Amino acid sequence: MIALRSVLFNTIFYANLIIRMIVLSPIYFIIPRKLAYSVPKNWARSNHWLMRVIVGTTFEIEGIENLPHGSYIISPKHQSFWDTYALLPNLDDPVYILKRELMWIPLFGWYAKKQRMIPVDRGARGKVMVEVLKRTKEELATGRQLIIYPEGTRRPPGAEPQYKYGIARMYRDLQLPVVPIVMHPGLFWPRRSVMRYPGHFKVQILPPIMPGMDPDAFFAHLIDVTESASDQLLIDTVERNPHVPLPPSAVERLAELRKAKAATA
């Protein structure tokens, strides 16, 4: 039954994406940019409804009050396609730094360009990164929120963290609060899998890390607060959803956490 629900969800999910892009394009590309953001935000809401109705997956967000006003940097854990769009309805005017190849995708790339997303070559250095920083500052000067995945790519739940130092450079250069966000959607929407699992999970928005720290100290602090909260949330999520199959990374990390707890008991 779960497999059938997964196939049905995936089919409707991608049809929902493509049909909305095509049908709403005349409106999207005519109206002002920020107003046009209602199109992807409503698409995100429709996906939450599809997950709830077809798969039986629900979520809740804790810590909305931790989001500052105006411009700030959002630093979420990244496990699934789900977390690339899920928070859009809760953000005012987010901007992404994304792989330049994504801008070449028909329709999607045009939509991203309309929202002034910032493309970057992952292997870029020097002048290219200077230009990316310049573009980022221009967008944030208008009150937007920058979304950066500090590990750079999707990681399975419980996997050893692999944070990139780029977020520390952004923190230093932009002088804005950084808001860590932890969640485990990868247990319900695994990467590189067509399966979707029912259950309930939390998204936790942690208190912002205010500007002014030494970049190295900030980087260590970001990893510490994010991973500590992520570990506890992993335990809570698995206890609440014992039926969900766990990837090896989650099994291994849970064993480590239980061993550490037993040693301190």
From TrEMBL:
Which Gene Ontology terms cover its molecular function? 1-acylglycerol-3-phosphate O-acyltransferase activity
Enzyme Commission number, as recorded: 2.3.1.51
Q: Which domain of life is it from?
A: Bacteria
Q: Where is the Phospholipid/glycerol acyltransferase domain?
A: 72-186
Pathway, according to UniProt? Answer: Lipid metabolism
List UniProt keywords, sorted A-Z: Acyltransferase, Membrane, Transferase, Transmembrane, Transmembrane helix
**Family matches, as InterPro entries:** Plipid/glycerol_acylTrfase
Q: Which residues cross the membrane?
A: 12-31
What protein does this entry describe?
1-acyl-sn-glycerol-3-phosphate acyltransferase
Give the species.
Rhizobium viscosum (Arthrobacter viscosus)
Q: What is the lineage of its organism?
A: Bacteria, Pseudomonadati, Pseudomonadota, Alphaproteobacteria, Hyphomicrobiales
